Amino acid sequence: MPEGQYGNFIDNLRLFTRGGSGGMGYPRLGGEGGKGGDVWVVAHKKMTLKQLKDKYPQKRFVAGEGANSRVNALKGSKGKDCEIPVPVGISVTDENGKIIGELNKEKDRILVAEGGLGGKFFTNFLPLKGQKRIIHLDLKLIADVGLVGFPNAGKSSLLSQISHAKPAIADYAFTTLKPELGKIMYKDFKQILVADLPGLIEGAHVNKGMGHKFLKHIERTTQLLFVVDVSGFQLSSRTQYRTAFETIILLTKELELYNEELQAKPALLAVNKMDLPDAQNKFHQLMNQLQNPKDFLHLFEKNMIPERIMEFEHIIPISAITGEGIDELKNCIRKSLNQENDAYHKKQLLNLQISNTSHREPLFQNALASSRMDTI
């Protein structure tokens, strides 16, 4: 796996680790050598993978050797452990891609390379070497809400509106260079962490563009917030124009092709740029399409239709420029998180069972739960 670096942001590293060798035994007196030190990966809140790489450019981590058995210390002491400091949110895999473990909170620790045994009777008093292991550190953001959308949907502007964050913003098809984090602050001091994930493009699942690099970050968010431009989306003059409804279908397909379990996450939909001319008519058209998705799926090529259409708990028309709908969106995010936090794992299992039994059956029972159509 190549190391992922975008500017100053690194999201994965490959490291060499080796446990310490054991110490020599003392055959004449039956003395046992000390065990070699172990290599641990330990989570620290104020650590980044870039800091780790800068501090240890060789990316080699070797634990200390166990002490030899001596006349005045027949049982040799254990070798010094080696600790690799990593950020919270790290997934550790071996060279074959097998997951060794995850570090989801500060001070979580994983043993990655064990020290060798010291020399003793059954080893003929000869020490054993420590375990050698190549490991991959893969950073996945942990956030309450992940913003999902194609470039220029207005996600960066929205993040600025709802949270304390100052992401880079541009008025052209602009893909965020790295995930931006913001906090929604409520009057009663409740805080919700929001991650703006870089804009996907069609074909992200086959590793086109940077979208695929960051699709993995969506896995660690509790809830998804789709952000679409009410007027639709066109990446450039050479690419096809997509309506807001088509955008939602294609975003859903990208998530499904990357990892279909993502569709089991609770999702909200923010329909952005309601300040633009004719936005109201386009929003009503979108709501009709979401209410009756089967009637419009013939517009798509068969391989572009997801197995399950996303089920949105709330659909909120907003304008990140004027602030329209922002307060309602913040309230809906909080309400949805409160409802989902306890029931999330149960619902995930249930949704996966439903998806297995109802192939290609769009699920939109609750799509209009808080659509505000009655107020538009």
Key terms:
Rossmann fold, 2 domains, six-stranded mixed β-sheet, 15 strands, elongated, disordered N terminus, nucleus
Q: Can you walk through the features of this model?
A:
The structure is a single chain. By secondary structure, the chain is α/β, with parallel strands linked by helices. The protein has two domains: 12-139, Spo0b-associated Gtp-binding Protein, Chain: A; 143-339, P-loop containing nucleotide triphosphate hydrolases (Rossmann fold). It is built from six helices and 15 strands. It has helices at residues 49-55, 155-162, 211-218, 244-258, 279-291, 326-357; strands spanning 4-6, 9-18, 39-44, 60-62, 82-87, 90-94, 99-103, 109-113, 132-139, 143-148, 180-185, 191-196, 221-229, 267-272, 312-317. The strands form three sheets. Strands 1, 2, 4, 6, 7 and 9 form a six-stranded mixed sheet that branches. Helix 5 (279-291) links the parallel strand 14 and strand 15 (312-317). The radius of gyration is 26 Å and the shape is elongated. Residues 1-8, 169-177, 204-209 and 358-376 have low confidence and may be disordered.
